Amino acid sequence: MVNQFHTRNVKKVFDTSLGDGCDSIYLLKQGFDVTSNEIDKVFLDKALANAKVENVELNITSLDWRKLDTELAEAGFDAVICLGNSLTYLFNEKDQLETLRQFKRILRNGGVLIIDERNYQYILDNREKILQGDFQYSGRYVYCGDKVHGKPVEISDSRVKMEYTDERTGKKGYLILYPFKRGEMKNLLAKTGFASIEQFSDYKVGENHSADFYQYVCVK
Questions:
Q1: What is the pTM of this model?
Q2: Residue 96: helix, strand or coil by DSSP?
Q3: How far apart are CA 15 and CA 186, in angstroms?
Q4: Would you tell me how many other CB atoms lie within 10 Å of the CB of residue 15?
C-alpha cells in the first residue's frame, strides 16, 4: 500500500474503516496525513488505546459512508482506503454503490481507492465442507494473529455468519456479512466510474481463485 502511495504522490489519506487502528497508525508513522473514520465505539476505544501506545494522535470522524458529502470536501484526499473486508457490512447494491460513489467523490483526480474483500466465492462453493469443519484459511496475508480464530458458521448466498473465538479466554464474537460473488465487487467499482481498476490476490497481481483475499487499486 505504501509503495502505491509513494508512486502516486499521496499525502492525504481517508481511512474509511479505522477498526482497531492498525492501518491508520502505520500510515501516520510513515508520515501520511490521515483522517480515520469509525462509528463503532468498541473499535474506537481500542484504536485510541493502540494509538496511545504507539504515541500517535488519530484524527477521527464518525460518518455514514453514504453521506460523506455532508461533511467532507469534494476531491479533498489523495487516497481512500477501505480495508478489513469492510464493504461487506452493506447488504444491498444501492448502499454499496452510493458508498463507492462517495469514496470516489472525495478523491482528487488521479487519486486512488484501495479496497479489499474476502474470497467469499470459495466459501459459497465449499459451504457443506466448511460447515462440517473444513475451513481452509492460510492466515498469511490478512488477520495473521494466532490467538483469535475465525470460521463461517452459517452460509447462504445472501449472508455469511462468521464466528471468532479468542483461544485465551474462550470468548466468541460474531459478524454477519454480505458475501460478494466472484466479479461482483469489481463490477461495482466499474459502475462507480473509476478510470482504472487493478485486481490483486493476496497482494499479488491478478485473480487467483484460491486466494484468501482480493485487493483492488482503483484510480479516479
A1: 0.93
A2: helix
A3: 20
A4: 30
Q: What is the pLDDT along the chain (220 residues), one digit of tens a residue?
A: 888 899 999 999 999 999 999 999 999 999 999 999 999 999 999 999 999 999 999 999 999 999 999 999 999 999 999 999 999 999 999 999 999 999 999 999 999 999 999 999 999 999 999 999 999 876 665 554 567 888 999 999 999 999 999 888 989 999 999 999 999 999 999 999 999 999 999 999 999 999 999 999 999 9
Domain limits of the chain? 2-119+180-219
Half-sphere exposure of 39 (CA within 13 A, CB side): 8
Buried b (16+ CB within 10 A) or exposed e, 163-191: eeeeeeeeeeeeeebbbbeeebbbebbee
Q: Which residues have CB under 8 Å from 37's CB, separation 6+? A: 14, 15, 16, 17, 18, 60, 61, 62, 63, 65
Protein fold of 2-119+180-219: Rossmann fold (3.40.50)
The grid coordinates of residue 54 equal 504507539
Side by side, which strands form the sheet with 172-177?
148-155, 160-166, 172-177
β-sheet bridge partners, residue 201: 204, 214
